[in-house]
Amino acid sequence: MEQLPCLLGMTLQQLKEVVAALGLPAFTAKQLAEWIYGKRVSDFEAMTNLSKTARQRLAETWRVGMEAPVDAVRSSDGTVKYLFRAGDSHYIESVYIPEGDRATLCISSQIGCKMNCRFCATGLQGFSGQLSVAEILNQVQCIDQPDSLTNVVFMGMGEPMDNLDNVLQAIEIMTASYGYGWSPKRITVSSVGLIPGIRRFLDSCSCHLAISLHAPNDTVRATLIPAQKAYPAGELLDVLRQYDFSHQRRLSFEYTMFQGVNDTPADARELARNLQGLDCHINLIPFHAVDGTGLRPTPPAEMERFMDLLNRLHFPTTIRRSRGQDIEAACGLLSTKRMELNA
Please, where are the H alpha helices in 109-227? Predict the structure, then answer.
């Protein structure tokens, strides 16, 4: 039996269109938004300030659309990896990362990924489909700790700029007064560098941007990231220089370190030269081994030296602490390939 369409993921304007089509009062739309996004209620019968008629009409043609995770695995460091169903036979993963008085949720935007980055388990899995707005927001709505979240990062499975319509609508709901009411500063969107999408993203919202760079120059990057061929990093950096990142919106570069590939002092100096003129932060990421890549992690002491050199060159740089590695939740390890094969 085919499921009814869901209200989760709808903007206030879309909810207004739904209630108008059902012949319900216009204010019902705002009530629905409060129940769904403010109170995270998944049952029309629990929406007590809606009339009985409104609840009946809604239940006949719509569902709220929140879906509990299929599984949750907890790491020894407190990180939790959630598994969500996406459609009838697909799955995605999200990662909850508590850190003192902060809690970050790393969410997915696609089922798998088209980008096929050499070092990423999600890319090696391949692409199975786009997540709807509802499936993106469901990751935030249905974890065990939604009220503790201080930040959301689109750094899970998929390339957000390749599903930008749905990502932007999810962000609208997260930041709107009728939705979560969050500041855009609580949201970071990562991209491997799809220039048209990045332009549109930067023109459409004021959330933070993280670029998956991973190399000091175009030549090295081409051996790691196939998208480099269509969207060279040199062109991307020229585009980024057209925007102002000196105030509230932050620009960061993700740089996974591979021994003998991108981790020498000469690489650090070249990276700094190529980033000149950009107000940015650099995150150095330990490589978490993925079978078949032929890549090895840079030793921690060498990562420290690389970081120190970049900081001396006046580029604020930190090493991202690995979280959830024991449950395959760390950077580059998210994959539902086994689930997809068994579905």
Answer: 121-125, 133-141, 164-175, 195-204, 218-222
